[in-house]
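User: Carbohydrate kinase. Structure?
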Amino acid sequence: MPKLYLGFDAGTQSVKVSVYDENLNNLTSQSLPTILRYPNPGWVEMDLDEFLDITIRCIKRCMEDIKALGYDPKDIRAVMGDGIICGIAGVNEEGDAITPYVNYLDTRTEEDVRYINSLDLDIWNKETGNPQASTMFPAMFARWFLKNSTKFQQQGVKFMHNAPYILAHLAGLKGKDAFIDWGAMSGWGMGYNVMKKEWSDEQLEILGIDKRYMPRIVKPWDIIGHLSPEMAERTGLAAGTPICGGAGDTMQSMIGSGNYEAGKGVDVAGTCAMFCVSTKGIIPELSQKGMNLIFNSGSLPDTYFYWGMIRTGGLALRWFKDSVCHKANDAVYYTDLSERAAKVPAGSNGVLFVPYLTGGQDENAKKCGCFLGLTLEDDQAVMWRSVLESIGYDYMEICDYYRAAGVNLDRITVTEGGSRDSLWNQIKSDMLDAEVVRYKNKGGAVVTNCLFAAYAAGDVKEIIPELEKILVVDEEYAPREEKTKLYREVYGVQKKLIKEEMNEAFAELWRVKKILKPE
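Assistant: Predicted structure:
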């Protein structure tokens, strides 16, 4: 009997579902886009039931595909999924969402973040590795729901992330059964003990979050239930198929790109551009206030990592293609843009793009997106290259932090959608003065999920040895000394502009937006 595994990645821009066989060969993949809503300045909302519906539709298509290949849905040994680590919604007794799904793109908690940070408490750093609150932390979203959501105040039972929500509904679980895996739990930013893998009573009390609202903690490969008859009918999967506990998208992307040992760097080039480095635990030099680095636990035991991010890194690329170029239905246009941008000199003719389309980090959440230095000589290709380089400038700052703390970053792996762009990879190599490596495996987090499903089903004894079989280098990019020197010089100017000289302009532009669209 064939052994197949189904994995999904519930990301910000889309949900992807894939089926792999026991040799980790991809049999089929299906994907559908998600919808982001912006009801107020700084607010970004999604819908957990939309995530669920998209996943169901993609699973159904995958089942039709494997049947056409001669397989039976009963061949699926287990289902495993990952989702956004910094995002939650509230659910009721039935386990259904009663609030919008709010994630890391949202900055509505800015004022509350300032209040929590004004307390200047050491417990956050001691137990989580994160010295300060951030507007991207689910812990802050939970406080907002408790204060502002009448529905949650009246009906709320638990807070849930998007992947566990999907998995729980596939298994027909109720609100009281809500769960979260030990890695994605650290996506809360606060409220837990990262080393003990448990919720922190003291932190939750300070935050004013009753522990009864917190989901139970599981391992990613734990079987939390089995596919319900209702979901079997809707998905085409066989009733009784084991459902795993799930994991965080960043955690699975890191494993899928070969990062499961301390000291390795990974660029997760997704919607939220994230630059991660694995460690053996908390590094005091990196857990400093003002660095805006986040510390998390990995999916595997005794794995940890820091990451810095640009909220709209990958989303800025999609925004430029869809909204500026009006090519929303042309996925190939990314390639066309990069082919033309490759002819533009490094530095984009002096054009700088500020990529903060949903606000900046917490020290200046009023930042916004803009192009600087445009002239009549500049065109779409110049602007595209400046968008790509803008992510690299923020990565340079993060990379400087890591290296100052003694982390060797001579070799960086790239993963997720943006990793397929050779121009962007070469730009990153030049800007970060590091060799950039891309693997042939294009599955990223999804293939890792399928490997975890195989482990949960008892079909493989160890995860890493099986993963190493498919980690074959696809392309390598070496830094060019003259380009690295040029980017370093421009970075000094860019950093001064954004961090110092433009602060007043950002504040005034935000004031204009509030006048035009008050809350």
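Residues 380-404 form the longest helix (25 residues). Residues 259-442+480-518 form a domain with the Nucleotidyltransferase; domain 5 fold (CATH 3.30.420.40).
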